[in-house]
């Protein structure tokens, strides 16, 4: 399961930053998107993309395309 | 980056005094770093660009307690990784120019993520003083900090600050001086990355010391080793180290225990350190309460309300930018064209200056200066509102809401605002592209802005529509705006697939909490920008204005406009335009002068087609009366500007542009154009090269003429092609009669 599949309000934990490479991967890691980190999907933009998540206590937005590369497991 | 010392020329003057203390200011975006620097340095800030790039550089030289301090603001970054322009600038500055001290501005309400950068700054071995900013807000949220704990655990000085309330600033500077006085006692602590990493670091250190001992004189040791550990390509190439130069056994143990991805391992280790520190020094009650930002976002980013609210906000920004500034722009224009020209003529007449100098001074110089000044109000207003949108946190939301639509054109959510401003005037639009971080997005947006039909093109439409389409003027003008937008979409996709192919765009952006920006900081920022425009762009525009004066008036003593250099250029250009339906030297000459500003097309046409009979002599006004008029009309401008805020939306500019009597001109162009060629002409005016001021703005923002060259080339081709399709296509369909 990847981050773009999660619904607003759902919480999860990042398992792996999978397919992202180079600058995108590094940027994600620098923003705190790391394996083991809890994440919560807050909103989807009115036009359906990008999405907003809470991670490390702040709000981050990213496109679905980028979120698709991030493997997560949903926590209840 | 080019070679450069942090201690620049000014210092040589006061060589007897100790050189200034060089303090670099580093921090994440959205932590109030600019506000803090504005609060400390005020108007002593010097704004420029980092060499060779479009990223803004701020510096200030001032004294605190008798010690000279040079403050250098580094771009806001989340990390010192080698990818984004901002990060490369920050790290090159820190590593190569080695400031005496780093002030790390940290958002106290978001300690952990901010400490991730702090940890990296500490690796440089330069003394760090932490400004724990937004401290008041953090305390109000119930956060408590163990400041002494931070100092002892990190080995950095800590001062709580609140930049918007200007508190803690003196203490911060005191701490900076205190730390700088004993740098040896204030080395940041060396943080432990765990046994496995540390063993590998030690091995790597031994290898490098043996084989490349010179490196340690050039780079901070710990930083060099840690960066090489995580596989920093940029650094490896910089020091000419082959990919396989480092023995594999250094990493072998590490890879076996922690997996292949050392970059992730190091990022993880740094974040663990940040998290550990935050846990030790920050006490907060763990209760999830709905905060103001969340409440606002529930409405502002709502699935149904999000877009209407965004459009309303944009409409407001657009209206305020242009309506508030227009009366002042008009006032400056009237003053330059009225009293100032008048006085200059009188004064030059008194000293017996020849006629041509009078003409050069009034038509060339004063018109040029006036032309520069006319832009000042709109640039100031635009900067004010853009800075407000950014500082308040709404800019990120605007990007979030619009990104899907903009991304389809290969743009970024933040591209919307520069494009929108382009409808008022392309120039502030170009300057507004600096809100985009990625150079690719910035350039692509700027290239499309000239397709937004600006206010200066409207007088041309009004003239031609009045002469040829009096029955449905609105529809015809509207069609031109739509054509511009449609072509922007097409060109956006085209550029995405050609010029910018292969460049991965990304949208990984923080949505910062809403905050009220400080008014002083807003004004300072606006002032810096306006000043920058006046000095840099002003010089170029003045030069061009004088050049055009020569074109119009040389060879000296020309009787007929046709014989001036401009007329001659028009005659050369005319055949190129004949497939478009307006291959006359008059039309061509008007288009040439329109390069200064597209509304000038109308003025030139007026002079060429329907010259005024005899010189209009202004009644002799005294200086006293003129001064009075200046003051009175300024008062009117203030009033008009204020009333514009409350007035409802109306197409006021349409009416305003008709104030001059264009009757004779309309009659003449009705004889030389057909409705079809008139429409083709309007299409051409919409699309052909951006005006001089846009060119200069592009040059200023991108550091070279390259992107203006691209805009010039594609727009010329597009203008010619579209006008040709309209005219020839129309003729085929039998509309040409």
TrEMBL record, chain A:
Pfam families: FeoA
Domain of life: Bacteria
Record InterPro entries: Fe-transptr_FeoA-like, FeoA, FeoA_core_dom, Transcriptional_repressor_C
Gene Ontology terms for molecular function: transition metal ion binding
Keyword Translocase: no
Keyword terms, alphabetized: Iron
Domain Ferrous iron transporter FeoA-like: from-to ranges: 1-74
SMART domains per record: FeoA
Descriptive protein name: Ferrous iron transport protein A
UniProtKB/TrEMBL annotation, chain B:
Transmembrane annotation, as ranges: 299-318, 365-389, 443-469, 475-495, 533-552, 678-698, 705-727
Hydrolase among keywords: no
Domain (FeoB-type G): residue spans on this chain: 20-182
Keywords: Cell inner membrane, Cell membrane, GTP-binding, Ion transport, Iron, Iron transport, Magnesium, Membrane, Metal-binding, Nucleotide-binding, Transmembrane, Transmembrane helix, Transport
CDD domains per record: FeoB
Gene3D superfamilies to which the protein is assigned, alphabetical: 1.10.287.1770, P-loop containing nucleotide triphosphate hydrolases
Chief location: membrane
Cell location: Cell inner membrane
Binding-site positions, GTP: 27-34, 52-56, 73-76, 133-136, 162-164
Function: Probable transporter of a GTP-driven Fe(2+) uptake system.
Full protein name: Ferrous iron transport protein B
């Amino acid at each position: 399961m990847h981050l773009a599949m999660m619904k607003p309000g759902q919480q999860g934990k990042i398992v792996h930053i999978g397919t992202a490479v180079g600058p995108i991967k590094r940027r994600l890691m620098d923003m705190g998107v790391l394996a083991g980190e809890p994440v919560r999907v807050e909103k989807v933009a009115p036009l359906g993309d990008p999405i907003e998540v809470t991670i490390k206590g702040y709000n981050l937005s990213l496109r679905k395309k980028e979120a698709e590369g991030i493997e997560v497991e949903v926590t209840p | 980056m080019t070679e450069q010392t942090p201690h620049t020329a000014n210092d040589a003057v006061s060589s007897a005094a100790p050189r200034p203390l060089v303090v670099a200011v580093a921090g994440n975006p959205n932590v109030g770093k600019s506000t803090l620097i504005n609060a400390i340095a005020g108007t002593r800030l010097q704004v420029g660009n980092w060499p060779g790039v479009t990223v803004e550089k701020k510096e200030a030289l001032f004294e605190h307690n008798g010690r000279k301090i040079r403050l250098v603001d580094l771009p806001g970054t989340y990390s010192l990784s080698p990818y984004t322009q901002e990060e490369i600038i920050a790290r090159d500055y820190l590593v190569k120019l080695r400031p005496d001290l780093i002030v790390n501005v940290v958002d106290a309400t978001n300690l952990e993520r901010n400490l991730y950068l702090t940890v990296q700054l500490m690796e440089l071995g330069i003394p760090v003083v932490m400004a724990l900013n937004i401290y008041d807000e953090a305390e109000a949220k119930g956060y408590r900090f163990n400041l002494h704990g931070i100092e002892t655990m990190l080995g950095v000085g800590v001062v709580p600050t609140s930049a918007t309330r200007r508190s803690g600033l003196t203490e911060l500077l005191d701490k900076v001086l205190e730390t700088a006085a004993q740098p040896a006692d204030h080395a940041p602590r060396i943080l432990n990355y765990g046994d496995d990493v540390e063993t590998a670091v030690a091995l790597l250190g031994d290898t490098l010391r043996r084989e490349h001992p010179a490196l340690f004189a050039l780079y901070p040791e710990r930083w060099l080793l840690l960066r090489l550990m995580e596989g920093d390509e940029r650094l490896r190439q910089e020091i000419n180290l082959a990919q396989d130069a480092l023995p594999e056994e250094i990493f072998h143990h590490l890879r076996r225990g922690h997996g292949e991805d050392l970059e992730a391992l190091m990022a993880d280790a740094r974040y663990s350190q940040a998290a550990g520190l935050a846990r030790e020094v920050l006490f907060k009650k763990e209760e999830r309460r709905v905060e103001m930002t969340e409440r606002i976002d529930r409405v502002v980013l709502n699935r149904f309300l999000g877009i209407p609210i965004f459009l309303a906000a944009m409409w407001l920004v657009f209206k305020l930018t242009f309506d508030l500034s227009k009366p002042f722009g008009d006032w400056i224009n009237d003053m330059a064209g009225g009293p100032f020209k008048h006085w200059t003529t009188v004064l030059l007449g008194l000293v017996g200056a020849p006629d041509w100098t009078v003409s050069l001074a009034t038509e060339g110089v004063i018109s040029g200066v006036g032309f520069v000044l006319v832009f000042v109000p709109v640039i100031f207003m635009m900067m004010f509102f853009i800075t407000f949108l950014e500082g308040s946190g709404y800019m990120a939301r605007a990007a979030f809401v619009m990104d899907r639509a903009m991304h389809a054109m290969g743009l970024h959510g933040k591209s919307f605002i520069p494009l929108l401003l382009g409808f008022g005037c392309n120039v502030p639009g170009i300057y507004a592209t600096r809100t985009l971080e990625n150079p690719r997005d910035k350039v692509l947006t700027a290239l499309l802005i000239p397709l937004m039909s600006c206010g200066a093109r409207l007088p041309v439409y009004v003239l031609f529509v009045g002469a040829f389409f009096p029955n449905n003027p609105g529809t015809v003008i509207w069609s031109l705006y739509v054509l511009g937008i449609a072509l922007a979409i097409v060109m956006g996709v085209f550029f995405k697939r050609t010029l910018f192919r292969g460049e991965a765009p990304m949208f990984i952006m923080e949505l910062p909490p809403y905050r009220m920006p400080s008014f002083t900081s807003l004004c300072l920022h606006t002032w810096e920008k306006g000043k920058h425009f006046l000095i840099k762009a002003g010089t170029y525009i003045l030069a061009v204005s004088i050049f055009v004066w020569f074109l119009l008036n040389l060879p000296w003593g020309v009787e007929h406009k046709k014989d001036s250099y401009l007329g001659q250029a028009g005659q050369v250009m005319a055949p190129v335009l004949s497939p478009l339906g307006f291959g006359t030297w008059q039309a061509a000459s008007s288009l040439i002068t329109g390069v200064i500003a597209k509304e000038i097309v109308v003025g030139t046409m007026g002079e060429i087609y329907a010259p005024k009979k005899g010189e209009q002599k202004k009644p002799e006004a005294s200086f006293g009366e003129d001064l009075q008029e200046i003051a009175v009309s300024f008062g009117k401008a203030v009033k008009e500007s204020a009333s514009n805020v409350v007035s409802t939306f109306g197409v006021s500019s349409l009416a305003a542009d008709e104030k001059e009597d264009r009757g004779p001109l309309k009659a003449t162009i009705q004889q030389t154009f057909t409705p079809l060629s008139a429409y083709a002409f309007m299409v051409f005016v919409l699309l052909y090269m951006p005006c001089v001021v846009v060119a200069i703005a592009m040059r200023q923002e991108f550091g070279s003429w390259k992107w203006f060259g691209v805009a010039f080339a594609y727009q010329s081709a597009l203008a010619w092609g579209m006008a040709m399709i309209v005219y020839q296509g129309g003729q085929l369909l039998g509309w040409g009669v």
